Amino acid sequence: MIKIWRIAAIATIVASSPVLAQTKAEVEAAYSPSFNHCMESGDAAQGITSGIMDCTGAENTLQNARLNQAYKTVMARLPARQQAALRTSERNWIKRRDERCREAADEAGGGSASGIIYSSCILDETIKRTIWLKDYPPKR
User: Fold this and answer.
1) How many structural domains is the chain composed of?
2) 126 burial class (0-12, 13-18, 19+ CB within 10 angstroms)?
3) What is the distance between the alpha carbons of residues 42 and 51, in angstroms, rounded to a whole number?
4) Residue 139 belongs to some domain of the structure
5) What is the pTM of this model?
6) Residue 140 lies in a domain
7) Phi and psi for 76 in degrees, rounded to 5?
8) Cα–Cα dist 69/30, whole Å
9) Helix axes 49-77, 80-107, angle to 10 degrees
10) Are the CB atoms for 29 and 131 separated by under 8 Å?
């Protein structure tokens, strides 16, 4: 059975992006306490796929809400022209994230590990984007 930390490490390495260069520690620091507790208890702690997927699914929902809030906050303070650029950037990022995470999952060769890798990749990439948005626009 593949250990959870190996799966997360593979997903993070495969899905890392030079544009979103947050460290693994920064990403892990953004995990909610409920996610950490979920992953350390019950089925997830035993490496059972359904338990891991339940934890990751709930955390993806929470982190997506954080991402949406960060996006709305940034959009509210930008002039219209920069809003359009950020909107385009966000749409392109979603496509790249989804493609990158599908590729990472495909490299796992199928099976339950693929689903875990995909979900973990989406989670970490969403956190990276939220961190990036909180510092947007970049300081020159």
Assistant:
1) 1
2) buried
3) 7
4) no
5) 0.83
6) no
7) -65, -25
8) 15
9) 160
10) no
Is residue 74 situated within a structural domain?
A: yes
DSSP string, 47-106: T-HHHHHHHHHHHHHHHHHHHHHHHHHHHHHS-HHHHHHHHHHHHHHHHHHHHHHHHHHH
Per the rule left: phi > 0, alpha: psi between -120 and 50, beta: everything else, 33 is alpha
Range of the domain at 40: 4-134
Kindly report, residue by residue over 41-57, the tens digit of the pLDDT.
999 999 999 999 999 99
d(CA 120, CA 57): 9
| 108-125 residue pLDDT tens | 988 899 999 999 999 999
Burial class (CB in 10 A: 0-12, 13-18, 19+), 29: exposed
For 46-77, give one letter per residue: b (16+ CB within 10 A) or e.
Answer: eeebebbbebbeebbebbeebbeebbeebeee
Residues 78-108 as b or e (16 or more Cβ within 10 Å = b): eeeeeeeebeeeeeebeeebeebbeebbeeb
The total number of residues shown for the chain amounts to 140
